Every structure is written in structure tokens, then in C-alpha cells.
Amino acid sequence: MKRARLCFLLAASFLCHIAAGQSVTSQQLPGQGQYVLLIHGGAGTILRSKMTSGKEKVYREALEAALKAGYAKIKDGQPALEAVQAAIRIMEDNPLFNAGKGAVFTHGGRNELDAAIMDGNTRKAGAVTGVTTIKNPIDAARAVMERSEHVMLSGKGAEQFAKQCGLTIVRPKYFYTEERWQGLQKAIRDEAPKTKVGHRQQQPGTGFPDYKFGTVGAVALDRNGNLAAGTSTGGMTNKRFGRIGDSPVIGAGTYASNKTAAVSCTGWGEYFIRNVAAYDLSALMEYKSMPVKEAGDAVITKIGSSGGNGGLIALDRNGNAAMPFNTAGMYRAAITKDGKITIFLYND
Amino acid sequence: MKRARLCFLLAASFLCHIAAGQSVTSQQLPGQGQYVLLIHGGAGTILRSKMTSGKEKVYREALEAALKAGYAKIKDGQPALEAVQAAIRIMEDNPLFNAGKGAVFTHGGRNELDAAIMDGNTRKAGAVTGVTTIKNPIDAARAVMERSEHVMLSGKGAEQFAKQCGLTIVRPKYFYTEERWQGLQKAIRDEAPKTKVGHRQQQPGTGFPDYKFGTVGAVALDRNGNLAAGTSTGGMTNKRFGRIGDSPVIGAGTYASNKTAAVSCTGWGEYFIRNVAAYDLSALMEYKSMPVKEAGDAVITKIGSSGGNGGLIALDRNGNAAMPFNTAGMYRAAITKDGKITIFLYND
Predict the structure, then answer these.
(1) Separation of alpha carbons B233 and B300, rounded Å
(2) CA-to-CA distance for B103 and B239, rounded, in angstroms?
(3) Active-site annotation holds for A195
């Protein structure tokens, strides 16, 4: 009898855990209709109880710096693309985030970076994947969009292209940070018995270690009413086999159309790819006339239902914003056309 | 005056050329509601006037062989995934098509292959990109889907994974064919003055040389009502910088959902990525209640409007098929549950 009760409690706790991971946090934002730039610095186990005031301050400052860099472009009358790129560059250069300088390590001890950018006006897009020597992958994504006839370039070829474009090239060791290196060592130690070829055993829906989080992204609306979206990431700690996540996949992690919204996602990339998450938000707006917030919630609900987790930021042409997620928290910030900044970290 | 008339005629001819390239061919198919497998072998300048009866026969036989290989699985009660994989393997092994053995060459004289597969029932997916030693990339895509926790693996990592899975590994020179090598030499000779970094000058909407065509794909419906889609390609002749096209991008070149349809695209990949073409077809069915044929036409019309060209095959859960394209022709074939085969090559 006691054993039955224990089993019941364990099962209930397990189900609550799933439910907690799946419920969508989507607050009412104070400046609807006024937003010009939203950014995220990744979703994951971001709990107030685990945060020190010092750490929280550092994150808030980093988000604010990125937001201000992007906002300066908007205020200056420059295109949304410029604002997205400026905000992401700041986050790429800050080791706090899993993008650029702070990229996580692959199983092989490398830093392989991905980024994408899309122009909502022309619906042109550019992306790079698996690059190891480009200081700011978001710059490379933009160069692919504007200076090649392609959308997606990979590996050494993408690096060669970036070099030809005159972008800043660094040695791979530029991306070494002690914290990320220790993160890889921990991830390797934590690996569960392998049931699939070279992969961890993982119960769908039970949540996933934060190995894959910290991706950064930005969506912007400029004075001409044009939207743009961008995403940059170091991918998943301990990733193998040249894994590509959703960030550089147009339609999955990044999408923008002036008809609907600019979207940047973060989270368990495989689920965002299979759900074609960023474009699904756009399709729900275009084909079902859903407002951006409702569409964002619907997409994250689908991600949760299929066993995945993460979040997204989305901005429509009228300055309405959505920042839903189903993880414990998501680093996210928004600024209105009057320069009013709001920063959120947790799910409250 | 004569010069003005000449200019007018030239302009008219140019506009007709654009119009011809943009108009969608989408015939009424005789076995609607009965189809179980559709395949394509690429879209492009496939003109009756340029085809010899010998060459036409070879293509028809190749398409029929692929169709029969896939149909055998369906008839045997096996999953749609098996049928898709079997049909694509046959085309990958045939040097006629730009996939597997017949893959085109990159600018650097390599054969870099991409493939993707998606299960409409589970909406799981797998893809590989930039692989040079995997005999049948479609097998690798399926292994990624079923034997890893990832969706998309690239380059050497993907090859290492395929090897660990016991797939057939070949030397890169296995993919050498004299015809494709000569195709690369021609493409290099044909290059227009470079205006972008290392790329050809290209007027949008004027049509594109057939350097990027010949991709193969299959969509199937099994006895349990499950759909699946797959695509495999050698990419674009003379491609550079590790370019990734739409084929391995879930939502762009490949998508399947039992709720809507299984889709495989072929054509100018960049436009299919930016239009999130395969998933857009699904979204039009799901959110706008469009029949598969209407949705297929809408997607190819959008591709054309944005300056791209190509085609797609799509099959819904009720055995209704769509095979629209806006190029001069598309190698395509279909089989009904009773084994009735239809093969089309041209736009009539």
C-alpha cells in the first residue's frame, strides 16, 4: 500500500515536471503597438532561486547594452536589418551568451557557430552554419544575403566567403572560454548510457539539460515599417556529427516578412525544425488572421506538445510583440519607439 | 524606326521568356484519390524539341524502375518511409539524376550531396548535407531521423555518423561521371562577369541555367494512411562556399504531415528556402483548407512571383496528387494503388 502511494507520488511529481516544462509563459506586455526592437539571450532553466543579484545585474546590463545598440540604429532612421545586426553583434561579443565569443564546445572540443538573418521587406535571407573562424557570424549571414546569390553557406566554404568579404576572421581559440570548456567536461560526465549511435538516452518531454540554450536573437521594426529578424548561436554543448540546429534554418529558427512578423527562436532546435516554428507563426498570422501574440503562443504550445522546449520573440509591423516560452525562464528585453526598456528573465 | 521595332521585338521576346518561365504547369491527373507514390527527377529545360526518342526512353525507364521499387513496398504493406527510401535509392544509383552517383560537381571539383526524409505520422525528420562519401544519402537521412536525436547533420560529422550506422561508404571518386565533369567545365566557361563575391551575375526572373536541377524526390502514402517525403540532390553545378540548397532543409525542400500532405521540391533552392515552400503548401492546406492541388499551384506561383523556378510533388492522405512546376518540364511519375503508372516529362 505504502509502495503504491510512493509510486503514485513519484508519477504525479513526474507529470507535474512535464507540465511545468510544457506550460507557456506569455505575459501581457505594457507597450503593445509601440515596440521597435526585441531581443533574446536564450531560454532555459533560468530560476530566480538560482540567480544571485550580481549575476542578474550582469545579464540585465548585457541585454540593455544590446538593446541600446540596436535602438540607436532605429532612432537614426536606419533599416531594421541594421538594428538586428547591431544588437546581435553586442551579444556575440559578450561571453555570457552562447553565440560568438561565448559559444559552447562541440564533443570534439571545437566551437562551431551558426547564424541567420532575414529581411522582411525583400524576404531575402542569409545564413552560415558550422563556422569556426568568423568573429561575428551574424555579419557573415548578412554578407551571404547581400553579397551572394545563396541563402545558406556552410563550414570552410562559408569561412572562405566571409574572408573574401573582408569580415573579421579570428583563430578558433578566440572562442575558448573556461566556463564553456568546463560546461563541455560536465556534459561529457553527465552523459547517460548510449542507446543510439553516440547519443544520450533522453526521454521526450522530460525536459533537456541546458546544453543547447543561450542562443541570441533580435527582431526589429524600422521607421519605414520594415521588419527584420536574426539569430546567432554556438549550438548545443557536446554536439556531434556536424549537427545543425534551427537557428540558421530559415523558417525554423529565423523568419521575417513585412506581411506578418519578424521571428527569432531559441530552444531545443530539433523541435523547432520539425515544427517549422518561425514560419508557422507567420502562416498562422497570414492564413488564420491570428494576432502575433496568439500565434506565438500557438507555436510554443505546439513545440511543447511535441515534447520540445524553448521560446521565441516576434514583432509585427504595428509594433506588437510576443515573447512566449515554455522553459523556466528566457533572457528577453524589449524597447519601444520612445526608448522605454523592459527586461525580463523569469516566468513571472 | 527599324531599331525601335527591333528593340520592341527583343523586349517582347524577353518578356515572353519570363512569362514562359513563370507560368505554372499543373495538369489534371487521371487517378486522383488513388495515388500512393509520386516521384520526381528534377525540373528544368526539358523540351520535347531537344529530346531524342532514345533519351526519352532512358528517362522513362529510370522513372518507372524507381516507381516500381517504391510501389513494391506499399503493396507489401510496408511504411510510406520505406517506399520513399526505395524509390530514391534507385534514382541515387542511376547516373541520369543529380543525386547519389550522378551528383554534379562543385566549383572545387567535388561532389557534395544533400538529402532529407520526413515521416508524416510522427513528423520526425532527418537530413544530411555536404556529404562526399555516403553512397546513398537518403539512407543517411533516415538513419539521422531514427538513430540520432538530431534532425540535420553536416559534412564529415554526418559521414562519421553514417559509418557508425554501418551504411555503405564509398570513395569520393565513386561519384565521378564524365558527363557531370564536363558539365562543370561548361558552367565555369559560361560564368558571366562576377559582380558579387565569386558569383555569377544573374538577372532575377530571367531563368537560370540548369546547373542546379536534377534533384530527385518521392512522396508516398501507405496502407495505414501514413505519409512520407524524401529528397536527394547533388546540388548546383559549380556551387561554392559549402552552399546548402533547399533539399535537406525541412520545410523548404522536404516536408510531411499526415494532417496535410507529403511534399518534395526541386528547382532553384534559394527561392524554395526563402518561401519555406514545402511547409507553406502544408500550411495552406491546414489553415486555409485548400486542396493539395490548389495549394501546390499557389506555392509554385509564389516561387515564380519572387523570381525563382522549379516544381514540386505533393500527395495528401486521400491519395490526391499535385505535380506543379514553372520550368519547361519536370521528370515526374505517379502510381495508383492498383499499380497504374503515369509518367510525364514536358509541360503538356
Answers:
(1) 20
(2) 12
(3) no
The per-residue pLDDT for range A100-156, each reduced to its tens digit, is 999 999 999 999 999 999 999 999 999 999 999 999 999 999 999 999 999 999 999
Q: Distance between CA atoms of B253 and B237, rounded to whole angstroms?
A: 18
Report the pLDDT value the prediction gives residue A73, as an integer from 0 to 100.
98
CA distance A20 to chain B (A): 22
Handedness of CA A128, A133, A134, A136 (dihedral sign): positive
The DSSP secondary-structure symbol of B29 reads P
Give the range of the structural domain holding residue B204, as residue numbers without chain letter: 2-346
Cα–Cα distance between B138 and B142 in angstroms, integer?
6
**Binary contact (A152, B244; C-beta < 8 A):** yes
Helix (H/G/I), strand (E/B), else coil: A93:
helix
Counted domains in chain B:
1
The ipTM (two decimal places) reads: 0.91
- What CATH number does residue A92 fall under? 3.60.20.30
Distance CA A272, CA A281 (A): 11
Determine contact, residues B100/B232, Cβ cutoff 8 Å.
Answer: yes
Close Cβ partners of B327 (under 8 Å, ≥ 6 residues apart): B21, B43, B44, B45, B46, B213, B267, B309, B310, B311, B347
User: Cα–Cα distance between B127 and B231 in angstroms, integer?
Assistant: 9
Q: What's the whole-model pTM score?
A: 0.91
**Looking at residue A173, what is its pLDDT?**
96
pLDDT digits (tens, 9 = 90+) for B275-314: 999 999 999 999 999 999 999 999 999 999 999 999 999 9
Instruction: Cell 505554372: give the residue.
Output: B24
Residues of B in contact with A249 (CB under 8 A): 152, 249-251
Q: What is the CA radius of gyration of chain B?
A: 19
Provide, as residue numbers in chain B, all residues whose Cβ is less than 8 Å from the Cβ of A251. 249, 251-252, 273, 276, 279
Query: With an 8 Å Cβ cutoff, are A149 and B199 in contact?
Result: yes
| Interface contact flag, B202 A270, Cβ < 8 Å | no
Nearest chain B Cα distance for residue A85, angstroms: 19
Q: Which three cell numbers stand for residue B140?
A: 543517411
A305 and A297 Cβ atoms separated by less than 8 Å = no
CB distance B98 to B41 below 8 Å: no
